[in-house]
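Is this the right way to post structure tokens for a design question? Let me know if I should format differently. Anyway, here goes:
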């Protein structure tokens, strides 16, 4: 895998302060969720920001053929820091989704 780790790539990324699902204001120091997708041209690109209550546990449903990830981080000064990967859906992982 030559792709950079999404958590490392998105660490420190600038993000909005409103949850994309419930519109709640994300306060400084709150944990927040971020959904990002890999693009061959643009690299890891942030798509959605959620408050912790709205952040899904996993990428569901995964997008066929896409490498996507849900990240958790701490919202601080309009950036997401201390980012970790909560879930990641790889393009060729569909067959594994049924396995518990
Ligand atoms: Zn929310």
């Amino acid at each position: 895998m030559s792709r950079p780790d999404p958590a490392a790539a998105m660490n420190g990324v600038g993000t909005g302060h409103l949850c994309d699902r419930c519109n709640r204001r994300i306060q400084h120091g709150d944990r927040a969720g971020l959904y990002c997708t890999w693009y061959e041209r643009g690299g890891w690109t942030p798509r959605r920001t959620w408050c912790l209550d709205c952040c899904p546990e996993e990428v569901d449903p995964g997008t066929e053929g896409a490498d996507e990830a849900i990240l958790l981080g701490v919202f601080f000064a309009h950036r997401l820091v201390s980012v970790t990967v909560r879930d990641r859906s790889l393009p060729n992982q569909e067959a594994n989704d049924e396995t518990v």
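Format looks fine. Someone answered above. Worth noting: Strands lie at 13-14, 31-39, 43-51, 68-76, 79-89. The CA atoms of residues 70 and 85 lie 6 Å apart.
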